Amino acid sequence: MKFTFAIAAAIFTGLVSALPAKEVESRQVPYIPCSGIYGSAQCCATDVLGLVNLDCGQPPETPTDADTFSAICSAIGQRARCCALPVLDQGVLCNTPAGVQP
């Protein structure tokens, strides 16, 4: 009896281990568009020589990936940016977020 149980357990374990592993779902790895000194995600209207961006604000929704970040800002007529210092609706020292087309 114990022997047949051990055989059945071994077969079941072999079948389970033969199943493909689940892929990591995208929601498990959060999208972080801005990091380091350029840590503030912003939607900005006008870029002035890469130093100052005008009419900036936080995205109205939390972006889940680069395309979503770009689409969120585009929907309000602005561009996705990462700024070092957002002050009074102005972004100082801004660059393009990871994965977003410039």
From TrEMBL:
It is found in: Cell envelope. Residues 1-18 form the signal peptide. Its main location: other. Keywords: Disulfide bond, Signal. The keyword Signal applies. InterPro entries: Class_II_hydrophobin (IPR010636), Class_II_Hydrophobin_sf (IPR036686). Belongs to the cerato-ulmin hydrophobin family. This is Trihydrophobin. It comes from Podospora pseudocomata.
